[in-house]
Amino acid sequence: DTEVTQTPKHLVMGMTNKKSLKCEQHMGHRAMYWYKQKAKKPPELMFVYSYEKLSINESVPSRFSPECPNSSLLNLHLHALQPEDSALYLCASSQVSSSGNTIYFGEGSWLTVV
Amino acid sequence: GESVGLHLPTLSVQEGDNSIINCAYSNSASDYFIWYKQESGKGPQFIIDIRSNMDKRQGQRVTVLLNKTVKHLSLQIAATQPGDSAVYFCAENPTGGYNKLIFGAGTRLAVHP
Hints:
The structure holds two protein chains of two kinds. By secondary structure, chain A is an all-beta fold.
């Protein structure tokens, strides 16, 4: 079982709504990530936080706004989304180092924009 | 056998056979590689990893082989079981990429009784 917990599991929102996806981990990891996955496609990196600071933004539109309130929590605030933003949003976490570390994923939040 | 679907290559095997899933990675400077298993409706699950200073690593029923010369990675699953049916992704971490995993396209493994 994953130790990265995401809520909600399913979210349906209108294009004018404001909603948030939440992620929590208690593995002591100091790097946290948001990935987006469309059907039958691999996950694509959106954001990386390291020590609660945003370190990578993969040119994600501003209608997606990440937030890392503390070392265990990661949020993704959603506003004025488009139907094409419908996807599985995956949160992940890992240790921080200059070389690769295993990245552990949550089960994801299924987002449908109507 | 192997077939290429509209979006995802599929490998079909009989239960009990060995499976080999292949992956070509893009960056010759990548120094860390991971295989993930993703079941329908779930997030990717870590299977096994390997660093670029190794050619082979074994886990429980799984083996990963790395050929840096041709930038090729493979995942071998011994005695494949129905529970192994899933989509398998390889992922590479470019050197200095600061945990910036880049995923391959994925391969669907279908295990038939």
